[in-house]
Amino acid sequence: MKRLFWMFLLTLSTVIVSAQNPVITTPVAPAATASQPKTLLLSGEITDKDNKEPIEQATVQLLLAKDSSYVDGALTNEKGLFGINIVKPGDYLLKITSVGYKPVFRHIHMAEGHDLAMGNIALHADAIMLKGAVVTAQAQKVVLKEDTFVYNSSAFRTPEGSTIEELVKRLPGATVSDDGTITINGKTVKKILVDGKEFMTGDTKTALKNLPTSIIDKIKAYDEKSDEAKVTGIDDGEEQTVLDFGVKKGMNKGMFSNLDLGIGTQNRYSWRGMGAYFNDKNRFMIFTNANNVNDKGFPGGGGRGFFGAGRQGLQATKMIGGNYNFTNGKKLNLNLSLRWNHSDGDLLTTTAAENFVSTTGSFSNSRRQNFSRSDSWDGRFWGEWKADSLTDVMTRGSVSWGTTDGLTDSHSASFNEDPYKYVKDALDKNSIQELAEKAVAVNEQENDDISYSKSNSAEAMVQLSRRLSRKGRNLTVRVNGNYGKTTARDLQLNNTYLYLVKTALGEDSTYMTNRYNYTPTTNYGYGFRVMYSEPLWKATFLQLSYRFNYKYSKSDRATYDFSDIAAGTFDGLNTAYRSWDSYINRLTSPLSDYLDNDLSRYSEYRNYIHNIRLVLRFVRSKWNLNVGVEMTPQRSKYMQDYQGIHVDTVRTVTNWSPMFDFRYRFSKVSNLRINYKGSTDQPSISQLLDITDDSDPLNITKGNPGLKPSYTQNLRLFYNTYVQRHQRAVMTFLNFSTTSNAISNRVSYDETTGGRTTMPENINGNWNVNGAFMFNTAIDTAGVWNINSFTNVNYNHYVSYLALNSKSSSQKNTTKTTTIGEKLDFSYRNDWLEIGVNGSFDYTHADNKLQQASNLSTWQFSYGPTATVTLPWGMSISTDLSENSRRGYSDASMNTNELVWNAQIAQSMLKGKALTFSLQFYDILHNQSNISRTISALQRSDVEYNSINSYIMLHAIYRFNLFGGKQARRQGPGDGPRPDFSRPEFRRGGMGGPGGGPGGRPMF
């Protein structure tokens, strides 16, 4: 393994050295001398024929007129301007291409001593068929503009038929978790936009799984201002991170659709359809999807670096959704979306954990089989109406309905030593018996659960904003309300065996728990907010806001306990969704006779929350500063009937939170931001109640009336910059968080039963720090060779209490975890070939104070090549090979090497390559595993999931696109007016692609 690792480092070194002298380069033009001819400048401006907007990243190629051989080239900048230095006068052919437009050719003659200004050249949208995945430029992967990261879709080759989930995963600094959560540059993405417009209002997963990459031009990542800030124009620091997907030029008018049908081995299938209609005012998109491949959003791609955690269980899903946008200039904007989802899940998890709950060993193993199904409807709306230049009305809302069914069968056991020292399968019946005889096994549990829930909810918000003066005096009023109702049913059957507790006859102790729960829950709330901004002096504002919220929730659980029935009463019954009646029918008495008033639980919770915020805002051309404080008085009323105890209590608290937000703009592409916020969190009333819940003898919980509120401080530093000349993007951030009086759990472990008694307690010493550094740059001036790096470092200092038994005093246990990660990518790219070498590693060191034998230093690293070849007759071949390795685990079975190979062959045909057949091969060598590890203050666990990683899929993908209005469909050159080349950004100089061209002089 060491030999392979050093070979990998040698390969990377070779690539770096070779990159300094790449095969394809833009020649450096020598300076003109008396004996050397002066270089000639060919310049021009490329715009969209319909909307007259400049076209960025259009490819301009200079060819010899006699044989069309390549001479030089350039990419247009953000203003659509290009320039090429020409050494030799003569006849040339100028070729201009851009994705979504018809190519343009111009015959030109460069006379000696004379530059040539082409003026404005307008490109027509391809009105008949926009090609889906043709890339002709070495586009920059990422560009920074102000505080916005702009990623070029064409710079990231994705498999045919991919959705934007695969594209997002390839963006530097971005991750997509198993549940669809997107994180970019250390911040969670809350919203997805399409061309700056709301899309599925807050629903990020639908876009990820259904928008095809073939329609996307650019992706912007930025912090969107709050609804109030967008109206008032005053940055209030309350933003949310969004991804804004820009549709390719020429696709903003007309219709387009994408249909993807796939069938594979292992009974795999995938069906995805998408259609859209766009015009000046309306945008309508509809999606449909059905698959059983754990829809990762794309029919290609591999498991690079996932170490099996990427596909958890087997899941079949069906979805139909639609999104509608209406825009009437700046007067009225609307977004409506509706989605139906159905899913069937099959999740088998095998868990091996070490629990840090005593100074002696505490190990647990479990095997859990869960089947699930769900149906849901979700509708959302957003609207904004500008009544006049001073008045704005905005509204948001959502409605949802859903049902969920579950069937769970689990088998678990606890041990006082590592069971794998004695047996291979810790949950095998014979193994447990052997471990019990050695006094290693502590307890064993068998559980069956049938569950069902039905829920519906609705919420709405209306906001009215009025500008009282042009100097920044504003008044905003917002009202909101919500309602929700849930009904849940649950049948639980449990058998527990205690191997260290003997009966009077010397046998192992056993007990059985059989319960049926019926739980209706209701919640609703309402609130309002008033915000006023007063200009103090130029670009300085004082902002005062008051917010009130009322929240109410009620839960009335009825518990029926029939644990005393004879053993074997339910033998022979087959479990099925909602099949509790077959069990209840075997009871000797009516169900009502088994109602247990002590185990039943009724609770009501009323919360009255006031929030007062005072903020001083300084808005300058180079910097912004927000300094403020907020006070949150809160009154809570809680009533509960449980275990024969009636509680009716009221609590009043006041929280204080300072805030500081500073932003400095060094330039349009270089920014620094420092953000600090403190917050106070009160313990919940249930944590404060002095009640012991021993309904589960192995998991007893207690309240603690002496709990204090916790105070958390968060500090974030963020810096980014971009060097245009070298196509170099740099980003770094550092986050620090510390909590005083954190609410932790004091865990008392009973070594004889394996049971725990948990009680919340305040503790100090919890803090964490994490940072990252992103570096992306082109190695050569043409952007053919690129290097991308993303480094992250994380340190967590977890503190918790534990006690050996209920009589001993608590001990402070500390778990320190250090994680270092690196992702490195070298790539070469031209019009028909992209090859790359990728490497990543994650190092984790865990140090446990009371379980020093459990200290580990583990490595997970991955490396391998990728390649994509695009052939002239419409065929593309893609492949990736990755060696995924783990080292340092105490369990030898975790220290593995997994060589994962994926491949795809695609052939496009028909006019405009409208039809594509692709064949994907997943995990060809059958090596990918499904194991992941997590570490916390209380536990280290390894989890293995069931999944199908190795299979073959055949896809047929059809695209139908009809774009443009009458002018867009006209044939002919249609050149626009000449640009003003006397402008500063178009002064005489060496020009080529972004970042400078021949001669090494800056562009524009």
How would you describe this protein?
With 1004 residues, the protein is mainly β. It has eight helices and 47 strands. The strands form four sheets. The chain has a 26-stranded antiparallel β-barrel. The longest helix is centred in the N-terminal third of the chain and has 18 residues, at 2-19. It is globular. The two termini are 51 Å apart. The relative contact order is 0.13.
Largest sheet descriptor = 26 strands, antiparallel, barrel
Q: Evaluate the radius of gyration.
A: 32 Å
Oligomer: single chain
How many strands in all?
47
Helix fraction by DSSP (H/I, runs of at least 4)? under 10%
Through-space gap between termini: 51 Å
Supply the helix-strand structural class: mainly beta
Give me the number of helical elements: 8
Binned strand content? over 45%
Unreliable runs? 1-36, 127-137, 296-310, 965-1004
Please sum up the structure shown.
By secondary structure, the protein is mostly beta strands.
